[in-house]
Structure prediction request, 227 residues.
Amino acid sequence: MNLKQINMAIYATYLTNLYGFKLKKAKNQEEKKKLREEYSLKLLSKLNISIEVLNKENIPKNGQYLLASNHKSILDPSIIEVALLDTSIYGFWVAKKELYNSLFFGSFTRNAGSILLDRESSNMAPFFKDTKEVVKDGFSIFIFPEGTRNKLDTPISTFKEGARIIALKNRINILPVYIKTNANKVLKEAIEKRTKGLKIQIQIGEVIDYKDKTPLEENYKKQFGIN
Prediction:
């Protein structure tokens, strides 16, 4: 690592843990939403990255949704948080067990509003119970249907069936979003070259009815013109 990379790593660690502490002290979910947005804006600003939202008019004014996004970068949650600024949509992130136990992300993930997904567990009943509680309390659910970051040279990797099951079980429609820019490449440029004026585009799709029997991946590809 060069000096620029080391400085950025130190700053990111400091910022993430600082907001992990602030989120733990937050009095309600509205306060947590504001803190998540604040964290995302500060991090992206430090990286000299701006977010351009395409088809912003597709963002619903209200309601609860299963927000489904592709996933290539550790920045993706922050990109989505910024895209939803000034909206009433607040969701709990589906987060894998590894993030809960991470020295870097652990405190933030546990306190930011998330639903623990233990992929090694043979009993998924507690997970689905938690999703029901979140929806019952009036919140949305945010998920990466690919299950993990897509490290292939393809726009998306295969969607897991779990996302559609969550939507069906909770009777919530799906809001598809597509991070059109390869955010991982932009992040690398931001860290290694400190390039100014970097931009990431995120596209908002049209809401998909939870009763739609078309496979989510097929629906998603069609909406965003992915081959």
